[in-house]
């Protein structure tokens, strides 16, 4: 698909959108040289109707928001077989990093040159679609903590969040989980389980994204279970999460498959689904949806 006029739908309540402001974002789009058919900043309650309208348009669609916004939009657009590209306006922007777009300007300039359509894998947990990952234990609790203590000073939040997570690892290190992968049962004591749609890449540098996937069409789920037992091992693992090489930690287990079931000792579990926290009944049923999501990816320069 050569460069053409895009419809652009942006979640008007995304944190980065509120921080930058509509005028600044509009100016950045114009400066990128991107051809635009329609630009819409929508309230969350308006997103579904806007998606229905844009899905019927012949113009390619870009969706702006965090990973949670992209997840909910993908759920709708996949059922309508409407491909979409992404503009990162979230906290983690995991899918944007997977596509090699680390900033909004990078994404705008990349899509301005054109896009091609592909289909990527997704996961599903108890009927909830996820594009990146679903997790139980520390990740949803950390998300709740971050929202309760949200501050504009990122440098202050990082140490607060780090020590919250370290303390959670110690308090919940004996949490029992059972993970069925195919026909085999695995038993762990773990404060953190993450299941991603395709494996995370190995990282060794602090300037790399520590949660980037090299292959979005690998056709597998990957479960990561942390089983650190001491405060020293908690800190070692968490430091590796920050600076890289976390997949080499001796207290981390990686399992791959296409369908998994997760049991805990609770009837309901707090689950982070692409960064959005929800309560789901156990057992948690997770399955791969191979090449389910139609996605626009920027054309690569020859």
Q: What's the SSE blueprint?
A:
Elements: E1 6-11, H1 15-20, H2 22-31, E2 36-42, H3 47-55, E3 61-65, H4 67-79, E4 84-88, H5 94-98, H6 104-112, E5 115-125, E6 128-130, E7 133-137, H7 138-148, H8 154-171, E8 176-181, E9 184-189, E10 192-197, E11 221-226, H9 231-243, E12 252-257, E13 259-263, E14 268-273, E15 276-281, E16 284-298
Parallel strand pairs: 1-2, 1-3, 3-4
Antiparallel strand pairs: 5-6, 5-16, 7-10, 7-14, 8-9, 8-13, 10-11, 11-12, 13-16, 14-15
InterPro entries: ATP-NAD_kinase_N, Diacylglycerol_kinase_cat_dom, NAD/diacylglycerol_kinase_sf
Domain DAGKc: 43-129
Protein name: Transcription regulator
Strand order of the largest sheet: 6-5-16-13-8-9
Number of strands: 16
What is the overall shape? globular
Q: Helical amount among residues, as a percent range? A: 25-40%
Poorly predicted regions are none
Largest sheet: 6 strands, antiparallel
Q: What CATH architecture of the largest domain do you see?
A: Sandwich
The fold-level CATH name of the largest domain is: Tumour Suppressor Smad4
- What sequence of helices (H) and strands (E) makes up the elements? EHHEHEHEHHEEEHHEEEEHEEEEE
| SS strand fraction | 25-35%
Overall number of domains: 2
CATH class of the largest domain, anyone? Mainly Beta
Domain DAGKc: 43-129
Protein name: Transcription regulator
GO molecular function: kinase activity
Pfam family, one: DAGK_cat
């Amino acid at each position: 698909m050569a460069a053409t006029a895009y419809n652009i739908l942006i979640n008007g309540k995304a944190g980065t959108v509120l921080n930058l402001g509509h005028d600044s974002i509009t100016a950045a789009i114009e400066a990128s040289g991107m051809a635009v058919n329609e630009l819409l900043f929508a309230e969350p309650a308006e997103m579904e109707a806007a998606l229905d309208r844009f899905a019927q348009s012949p113009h390619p669609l870009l969706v702006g928001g965090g990973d949670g916004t992209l997840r909910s939009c993908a759920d709708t657009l996949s059922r309508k077989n409407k491909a979409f590209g992404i503009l990162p306006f979230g906290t983690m922007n995991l899918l944007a990093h997977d596509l090699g777009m680390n900033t909004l300007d990078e994404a705008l300039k990349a899509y301005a040159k054109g896009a091609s359509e592909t289909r990527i894998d997704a996961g599903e947990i108890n009927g909830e679609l996820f594009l990146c990952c679903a997790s139980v234990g520390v990740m949803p609790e950390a998300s709740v903590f971050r929202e309760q203590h949200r501050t504009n000073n990122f440098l202050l939040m990082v140490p607060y969040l780090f020590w919250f997570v370290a303390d959670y690892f110690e308090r919940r290190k004996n949490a029992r989980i059972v993970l069925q992968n195919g026909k085999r049962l695995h038993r762990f004591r773990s404060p953190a389980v993450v299941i991603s749609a395709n494996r995370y890449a190995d990282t060794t540098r602090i300037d790399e994204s520590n949660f980037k996937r090299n292959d979005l069409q690998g056709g597998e789920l990957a479960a990561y279970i942390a089983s650190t037992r001491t405060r020293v091992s908690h800190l070692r693992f968490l430091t590796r999460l920050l600076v890289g090489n976390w997949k080499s930690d001796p207290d981390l287990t990686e399992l791959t498959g296409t369908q998994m079931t997760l049991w805990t000792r609770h009837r309901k579990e707090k689950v982070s689904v692409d960064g959005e926290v929800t309560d789901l009944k156990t057992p948690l049923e997770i399955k791969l949806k191979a090449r389910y999501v139609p996605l626009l990816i920027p054309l690569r320069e020859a």
